[in-house]
Write a structure and sequence with these properties.
This protein is an all-alpha fold. The protein is about 60% helix and about 0% strand. α1 runs antiparallel to α2. The longest helix is centred in the first third of the chain and has 20 residues. It starts with 8 loop residues before the first helix and ends in a 9-residue tail after the last helix.
């Protein structure tokens, strides 16, 4: 394949198809070099055209809860109380710095996700 910049959807689709054909490439071969270069080009194209916004903090918490099979009651030791957990997850109260630290430390949610601004349901 003639490797070149990805400028449009057709180039992108062709690159993905070629990457798929190279997935079994052996290390230190021309095919592996092509795979690495194409992967970099595809990532750059996707970053520009398919940017995924980070989830807001509450969605990040809910996602981690789902991943770990956690219930609201499991967050009591992290957030403070059963009612506090409910207020946070129902967007009636914002996270505090201490809650963010605890969520990061105990659930390994990236701090960057927890510090994003989000709307509450308070008047």
């Amino acid at each position: 394949m003639n490797i070149r910049p990805i400028k449009n959807e057709e180039d992108y689709t062709q690159a993905l198809e070629y990457i798929e054909s190279l997935m079994d490439a052996k290390p230190n071969t021309l095919q592996m070099d092509e795979l690495e270069v194409l992967t970099t080009l595809v990532e750059a194209y996707e970053e520009q055209h398919y940017k995924i916004e980070a989830p807001d903090p509450i969605e990040a918490i809910k996602f981690r809860m789902e991943q770990e099979g956690l219930k609201q009651k499991d967050l009591v030791t992290i957030v403070g109380s059963k009612s506090r957990v409910s207020e946070i997850l129902n967007r009636k109260r914002k996270l505090t710095i201490e809650m963010i630290r605890n969520l990061h430390k105990q659930l390994h949610i990236p701090v960057e996700s927890l510090f994003l601004d989000y709307k509450t349901n308070c008047a």
